[in-house]
Design brief:
330 residues, mainly beta, Pectate Lyase C-like, 18-stranded mixed beta sheet, eight-stranded parallel beta sheet
Length: 330
Amino acid sequence: MPPSYIPFGARTLLVGDIKLTHSTPVARNPKPGIAWYVDPQGGSDTASPNTGRSWAAAKATMDAVFTESTFSDGATIYLTGVLREYASTPTHPTTTTRYVHDVSIIGVGNVPRQALTGTTHNGAGATWMSPTTVVNASALLKIRGQGWHIENIYFNNAGTGAPAIDIFRDGETVEADASHTRVIGCKFIGTDDGILATGGPNFVQIRNNEFFNFTGAGDTAISYLVGAGVGTHLMWQITDNVFINNVNHIVVPCRGSFISGNHFGHVGADVTTTKHVDLTNGSRNTVMGNFFEVAHAETGSAAMFLPQSTANSWYNFYRDGDVALVPATA
């Protein structure tokens, strides 16, 4: 005789952010947009059969996804391989009075790395580099919509006059405004800037990234350009990043922002850092809990940490201990 049982019916189990039922798994608060796939080595920009909606039908470029009629708010783009492209985020396909918002671009490798052996892609790492013909004034990615999320990608721009990522705001009638951009878990190397904020975008988050080898005159890991001067770099979060072997680490006039948990190198393999944190023309920022590989009382430290005023709050760790003041040794 078979064992008896009581049919309790469908069950629901909550695990992390995933709701598991007898039906299709559904994420809590799922994004409304479409998932897209970019594989420069294995994909194609041909409209059919390469729809960009699966790895088997992946696109080869970001621009091919951006120009799709169904590319819109809330989309997620997965990237594998070595992408050599300059791309600018598009206007909305139907509401052309604004740009597309709330898109994620996510590298699918375990870590962001330069996934090349010579010139051949190896593994699943996501790398974004300059095209073979370098345009010195072009960013690899120019973000013009709000709430974009960039994660787990190795960026290397060979252009001498442009960053890897330009977080852009212009104040025009169809306003480009990349406020609320979030860059997480990426690596940046290049010949100008890692991340550039143009026009004063607000509420930017830069977390858990690595910036290294910005060694040319004036090169800066995180920088700004006044541009249209629409915003004020309000309430930024620059946290848990590593800065090594850069001429300048952070030069942005933030306001009411938080810089914490970062590691700042000083004497690198090629250069000694000129500016660690320069917040000139900003105010009410908190610079706290960072480690600087330089003595607080080292000669010249007053020029490495700006402004030399009480406009911001400081409490950090240096080679000679922790100090609750901006370094001020001439």
